[in-house]
Design a protein that fits this description.
This protein has 244 residues and is α+β, with helices and mostly antiparallel strands. The chain folds into two domains: 145 residues, no CATH class; 89 residues, no CATH class. It is elongated. 42% of the residues lie in helices and 10% in strands. A four-stranded mixed sheet has the order 2-1-4-3, sandwiched between helices.
Length: 244
């Protein structure tokens, strides 16, 4: 097996990895709960583990879990950086990863949440990502594009979101802003949903309580609650607003 030599080669492997759900008898599928170095590709909005994407031309059917994680992590380090824990970026992506794995009946490894593993994203100056951003034109840049993808995926399970909004309504619980009242039909149904218990804060997967774990927040309050040190509670956010 030969290590990959480019971000494009890693991305091609990651795209092939998305077929893992169609091959439940494969080693790649059976080890979904054991991977703990996960790589995120914002242009494709997909995750894939290091040992799968680190070698050339890997396929789900042909993956045998050979080679060493040390080798693949080293070569991937040329193109990716590890997200800090805790951080808003990590929180958002770990919830996306968890939601995807749950659809396949697997949980995120504890090593990804708080151990030696983690989530990795392309380095900001990656040539491939610059080319993607340039192709889009306008005022879209590499760093901005990456954060836009992360922010736009902040509302996870459609069922959990729907139940949260049924229970709490469509107004921001932080500042009271309501998009439909402000923008009419354009804002109908729009609101972010925030997880009060980010997955990085626990060592196992859990069943989301739509009433107690999720709250509707406008994008501004959603961004601000992630900046609160310590417990990111609704009361802490409301106190901050009251003191402003």
């Amino acid at each position: 097996m030969q290590p990959i030599q480019s971000l494009a080669a890693a991305r091609a492997n990651a795209v092939r990895f998305q077929n893992v759900a169609d091959k439940p008898e494969s080693i790649a599928f059976k080890q979904l709960g054991r991977y703990f170095h996960w790589y995120y590709f914002p242009d494709n909005e997909v995750f894939a583990p290091s040992k799968f994407i680190g070698y050339k031309d890997t396929t789900v059917a042909g993956y045998m879990s050979q080679g060493t994680g040390t080798e693949t992590t080293r070569v991937l380090g040329k193109f990716f950086k590890k997200l800090e824990r805790p951080s808003q970026d990590f929180d958002n992506l770990i919830e996306d990863l968890s939601a995807w794995l749950h659809t396949l009946s697997f949980n995120v490894s504890a090593k990804t949440l708080s151990g030696t593993g983690g989530i990795y994203v392309p380095k900001e100056l990656s040539t491939d990502l610059r080319e993607v951003s340039a192709a889009k034109g306008g005022n879209t840049f590499v760093e901005g594009a990456r954060f836009n993808v992360i922010e736009s995926r902040s509302e996870r399970s459609p069922a959990a979101r729907a139940k949260c909004l049924e229970l709490h309504g469509l107004s921001c619980l932080g500042c009271g802003f309501n998009f439909e009242r402000k923008y009419g039909s354009l804002g109908s149904g729009f609101i972010h949903v925030h997880h009060l218990n980010p997955l990085r804060a626990i060592s196992h997967s859990y069943v989301v309580d739509a009433e107690n774990d999720l709250i509707p927040l406008c994008p501004n309050c959603h961004a601000m609650i992630h900046r609160i040190s310590g417990e990111q509670s609704l009361n802490a956010l409301q106190d901050q607003i009251a003191d402003a």
